[in-house]
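User: Show me a protein chain along with its predicted structure.
Assistant: Here is one chain, sequence first, then structure tokens.
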Amino acid sequence: MELYNYIKALHLIFVVTWFAGLFYIVRLFVYHAETKDKSEPEKSILIKQYQLMQYRLWYIITWPSGVLASVFAFWLLYLIPAWLEQDWMLVKLGFVILLYAYHMKCHLIFKQLQKNEVKNSSNFFRLWNEGATLILFAVVFLVILKDAFNWIFGVIGIFFLSISLMIGFKMYKRFREKK
């Protein structure tokens, strides 16, 4: 059981750093997208800096954290395979698959921005960042409640929180544009 606790602690540490990387990389995408409105030489300087920051964050923190979180998760499932028979775990794994898809989409965006191909607006990236937040809330509620049904209430709550944040974001944007 002691090995289990060490593996669980390592899994949680790398989940936290993985999400931190995902949250921050999208914030850098926002800043990168906003450089299109800048004039030279500020634009070129900022793009170069954001590309460097994105590169380091993505390959030094985010990717390794995602891989290590997964390795320790598989190890936990190896130690307690009965979890795969529980509904909450199957639902959680569904959200983990969504998280992998989210990560891969971020990777595609990262590669575009490394070539300075800005195909999305900063507003898109602000909303995109909420995807990881929803996945995080769903997974945490599932793990803590260990109930495949009650997590729905937590996710509904975060959905309404997200709507409130979007409304707040729109109000802030209008306020910012007035200045």
